[in-house]
Amino acid sequence: MKAYINLLPREESAPRRSRMWGISAGIVIVGVGIGAYGVMESRLDGVRAEVATLQTHRDALKGEWEKRGAGLSGDVSRPVLSQGDRWSNPLREISLAVPEGFYLSRMESVEPKPGESADSRKPQALRLHGYARTYGRLTEFMKRLNQSGTFGSPLLEFAGSEEGPAGGLWIRFEILASVTREDG
Questions:
Q1: Contact predicate 126/177, CB 8 Å
Q2: pLDDT in tens, 13-53
Q3: CATH number listed for the domain at residues 88-179
């Protein structure tokens, strides 16, 4: 038996019950949100700690790099830089000469003959290995190298059909191109 008597009609007493359900649901949703925020915050703390560790490693490596770099004198680095400048123009010309459907797989510097120094006025050469989709593209590449002014007449040392880098038959080639250096 009930301890109280409800004198209100049934329609008027129902909204109170639904209001209590709404308030309860709101409290549960807020509680879940607070819990999710706590979990996210703890994960974020872990990520922050990992970033701090990585920054410490980065700073240590940067300090080591600077220490090693400080030991180099200008006299040691100057020949290396001038040699790099000597090859930057030929490599740029090669990159401009490459047509579509043409892949370079390897470049080799051809050593000077015995008795010649690397700094002699005689041109050095590059051996270029790669794949071309057609003989026309191979011919176009060689023509562009010849017209660049950086290379002497390129010589096709080998050309043959075989499976290429992107599937299908391609022309594998080897080209020898003498490098005529500009005095600078």
A1: yes
A2: 555 566 777 888 889 898 888 888 888 888 888 889 888 88
A3: 3.30.70
